[in-house]
Design brief:
Its cofactor is heme. By secondary structure, the protein is an alpha+beta fold. The protein is built from 20 helices and twelve strands.
């Protein structure tokens, strides 16, 4: 009798829960018909949407979206969902060009935007800036990477590359190096010299990577609270307003704030001038011989973003290229043959000679084709517009709708690349490049939001490669996982098992 009574008491609550659940499921299913109701081919998403495997770090976003695109290979665009949020995946090259270049004003923002003043570091990054602030922030960053400054930076790159080669030579024969650590020690060394005029000691034999490497590492290896903020920021941005945007820890901002203050005061006191970020900072914050504290935090944020541009992306790219050459020895020999032909053996590198290494540049581009730093470009529609496919279908994209460019998918499309799944640098030879739409290679993006540090980053990587490959043969280490695959657990580009490399000295 008691059991019957308890059941009768619970029955109304069970009915309420069942009704609410049914209503919630019905709403989700209705929301997930957004594209179907507009006549756009869409997926059949699970209750939690199409990107759940990426959120759970079981697959990369590029892999998930590539699978969807291949199921709908003949469609110029496909509708998908992040739970109930509609996203348009644009595949056709002409439409990609429309979004990134021709109709940029309608897609001026990236999907992730940080409000002005909301984050002490990334709030000053043009990548996260809304269109009204983006131009100003990009202009500041672009000045640091204009052609004249890139050329000035070459000597620091060459010096750092020599230090990298000495570090490798000073290790025990047969040592299996952590390739990512090695590459980022080099980019930390370059960045400290180029941006701040400081010797970082990150490439000294027998020493730890140094404070500049550690700061760069901390920016992208968040603690638990920062990881929570980052996940909320990516997947449910409205909640970020409540818990705060600050993804970069205060200790990192304090480091760069102190670095700028001390450097500016030292140069002012000693009469030192140098064409770098610190010189720019001195013009901004020195008032009557004293540092204006109200400008210091802003400059620290800008310094962090300049450092990120030169340290993280170039480090990952350099390590990736070395891995591709280690696992493709025939292509490595082709690079070495070009170096022997174009460079003067035993003499210091020269800027124009390194720039004039076409096959080495093909190797860098091919690495970024197979493993782009960002496997999906994510834009936000800022002004309602209609996208019309050359093949017929069109779609009205409403303001506030996310539009994804499936970079990994177009980079591996057999319609544009003869060996889409292989490391094949000849994809970027003049013969194979002829007639290929520009928008099917997006290693640095395209249009007004293209990476401002593209030329600097490419040169930095090429200088290191030219130096190392003249002196060493690069081999995969024993711990290297093959075949090479992206690691879905990594926030940024990394590979399953990491990057492990061995270096064998070449006969002189």
């Amino acid at each position: 009798m008691r059991l019957v009574n308890n059941t009768m008491v619970l029955l109304p609550w069970i009915s309420v829960v069942a009704a609410v659940t049914a209503a919630l499921v019905a709403y989700v299913k209705w929301a997930q018909s957004y594209w179907w109701r507009r006549g756009v081919v869409q997926t059949r998403p699970r209750l939690l949407g199409d990107l759940w495997d990426q959120l759970m770090r079981r697959r990369t976003a590029g892999d998930v979206i590539q699978s969807i695109c291949r199921k709908h290979a003949k469609e110029p665009f496909v509708g998908i969902y992040n739970i109930t949020t509609p996203i348009l995946v644009v595949k056709e090259p002409e439409l990609i060009n429309e979004v990134l270049v021709k109709n940029f004003k309608s897609f001026a923002n990236n999907e992730t935007v940080i409000p002005e003043g909301a984050d002490r570091a990334f709030g000053y990054n043009p990548f996260f800036a809304a269109s009204h602030r983006w131009k100003e922030l990009r202009l500041r960053l672009s000045r640091a990477f204009n052609p004249s400054r890139v050329k000035i930076a070459f000597s620091d790159m060459a010096t750092s590359a020599d230090c990298l080669a000495h570090l490798i030579a000073g290790s025990e024969p047969g040592t299996s190096h952590n390739g990512l650590l090695l590459a980022k020690r080099y980019t930390a060394h370059v960045s400290a010299r180029v941006l701040f005029g400081i010797e970082s000691h990150s490439l000294e034999i027998g020493s730890q990577p140094g404070v500049f490497y550690e700061m760069g590492h901390k920016i992208f290896n968040c603690d638990f609270l920062q990881n929570i903020r980052l996940m909320v920021f990516i997947y449910y941005r409205p909640l970020s307003k409540l818990i705060g945007y600050n993804i970069v820890s205060e200790s990192i901002v304090d480091f760069f704030r102190k670095l700028i203050r001390d450097s500016v005061e030292y140069r002012h006191r000693e009469g030192v001038t140098r064409e770098d970020f610190v010189e720019h900072a001195a013009k901004t914050i020195m008032v009557d011989g004293k540092v204006a504290e109200d400008q210091l935090s802003k400059l620290a944020g800008q310094a962090i973003n300049s450092y990120v541009e030169t340290f993280e992306t170039s480090g990952i790219t350099l390590a990736s290229v070395l891995l591709m050459l280690a696992t493709n020895p025939a292509q490595q020999e082709r690079v070495r043959a070009e170096l022997k032909e174009k460079l003067k053996p035993g003499e210091p590198l020269e800027h124009d000679a390194v720039v004039g290494l076409p096959f080495l540049e093909q190797v860098v581009n091919e690495t970024m084709r197979l493993f782009p730093f960002s496997d999906t470009m994510r834009r936000m529609c800022t002004k309602a517009t209609t996208l019309r496919s050359a093949e017929g279908p069109s779609v009205l994209v409403e303001e506030g709708t996310a539009v994804y460019i499936p970079v990994e998918t177009v980079h591996r499309d057999p319609a544009y690349y003869s060996h889409p799944e292989d490391f094949w640098p000849d994809h970027f030879s003049p013969e194979e490049s002829e007639g290929r739409p520009k928008s099917v290679y997006l290693g640095f993006g395209d249009g007004p939001r293209q990476c401002p540090g593209m030329k600097y980053g490419t040169l930095q990587v090429k200088v290191a490669l030219a130096t190392v490959l003249q002196r060493f043969e690069v081999l995969p280490g024993e711990k290297q996982v093959l075949p090479v695959q992206r690691d879905p657990m990594a926030g940024l580009l990394n590979y399953k098992g990491g990057i492990w490399l061995k270096f064998r000295a070449l006969a002189e």
